[in-house]
């Protein structure tokens, strides 16, 4: 019941976000073609994954309900999106590692003692959508290294990137109890800039197929986008989910390497 209520509240939030992005209410749902029965539209268009395979992928529960994803970058530090943490009291969070299926009590949990949000963060479309949470204990799972400025080669258009999360699988508020993954190619800056006038290549990177069909979606935010064993992106925003010509937008981790590293090692 509580879950249903929170997810309803979240869905209303999503509708509000659509208005913020200048879309008509309901446009996100109605603009997308109905999913084809054969395409298994699950993250959207993904497949099952486990936290054994991706041990650094964590769920961020707000008041006990899955809200965002995150990446374990040190045993007591989680990298996530600033739009996930903005305006939320630290006491409301529970961080869950090692739990593929959120209906179980597998794995380990931690509370949050401190949140650092990028000081420049204002809204997802303005960029700087990065945050680091400090946990009250170590979660002893494998951590994921961040992409550095010297890793700019990883950001070449067409590079296959893997995103993970427990988010919406259809764009209609169908949240997943189990971890999902999707592999999507990075787009060029030019492709993303023509999809979104707000795109900023210094703080964002886009991924998705021209025809759509595979994407992250609501409640995947804050979660990892990974190439070659490095965190290259943080799920941030998009117009609808998995729509043709509207790739997912991720915070460009290499641009924030110094600031994030300072927080992770503090
Ligand atoms: N902002 C969303 C969240 O809070 C993530 C949206 C990602 N959208 C996309 N089309 N890739 O969960």
TrEMBL record:
InterPro entries from the UniProt entry: Peptidase_S1, Peptidase_S1_PA, Peptidase_S1_PA_chymotrypsin, Peptidase_S1A, Trypsin_dom, TRYPSIN_HIS
Keywords of the record: Disulfide bond, Hydrolase, Protease, Secreted, Signal
Domain Peptidase S1 intervals: 43-265
SMART domains, alphabetized: Tryp_SPc
GO biological process, alphabetically ordered: protein maturation; proteolysis
Signal sequence range: 1-29
Subcellular location field: Secreted
GO cellular component term, pick one: extracellular region
Pfam families named among the record's database cross-references: Trypsin
GO molecular function: serine-type endopeptidase activity
PROSITE patterns noted in UniProt: TRYPSIN_DOM, TRYPSIN_HIS
Family as reported in the entry's similarity comment: Belongs to the peptidase S1 family.
Protein name per its UniProtKB record: Secreted trypsin-like serine protease
Species this chain originates from: Crossiella cryophila
């Amino acid at each position: 019941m509580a879950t249903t209520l929170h997810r309803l509240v979240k869905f209303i939030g999503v509708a509000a976000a659509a208005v913020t992005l200048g879309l008509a209410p309901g446009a996100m749902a109605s603009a997308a073609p109905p999913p084809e029965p054969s395409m298994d539209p699950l993250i959207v268009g993904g497949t099952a994954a486990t936290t054994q395979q991706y041990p650094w992928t964590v769920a961020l529960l707000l008041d006990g309900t899955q809200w965002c994803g995150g990446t374990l970058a040190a045993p007591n530090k989680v990298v996530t999106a600033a739009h996930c943490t903005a305006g939320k009291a630290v006491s409301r969070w529970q961080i869950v590692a090692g739990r593929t299926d959120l209906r179980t009590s597998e794995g380990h949990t931690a509370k949050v003692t401190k949140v650092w949000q990028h000081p420049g963060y204002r809204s997802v479309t303005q960029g700087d959508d990065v945050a680091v949470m400090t946990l009250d204990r170590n979660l002893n799972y494998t951590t994921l290294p961040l992409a550095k400025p010297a890793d700019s080669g990883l950001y070449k258009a067409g590079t296959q990137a893997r995103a993970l999360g427990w988010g919406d699988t259809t764009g209609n508020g169908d949240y997943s109890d189990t971890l999902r993954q999707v592999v999507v190619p990075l787009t060029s800056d030019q492709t993303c800039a023509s999809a979104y006038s707000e795109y900023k290549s210094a703080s964002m990177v886009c991924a998705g197929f021209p025809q759509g069909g595979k994407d992250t979606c609501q409640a995947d935010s804050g979660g990892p986008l990974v190439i070659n064993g490095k965190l290259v992106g943080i799920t941030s925003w998009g117009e609808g989910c998995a729509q043709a010509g509207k790739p997912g937008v991720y915070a460009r981790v290499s641009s924030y390497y110094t600031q994030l590293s300072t927080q992770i090692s503090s």
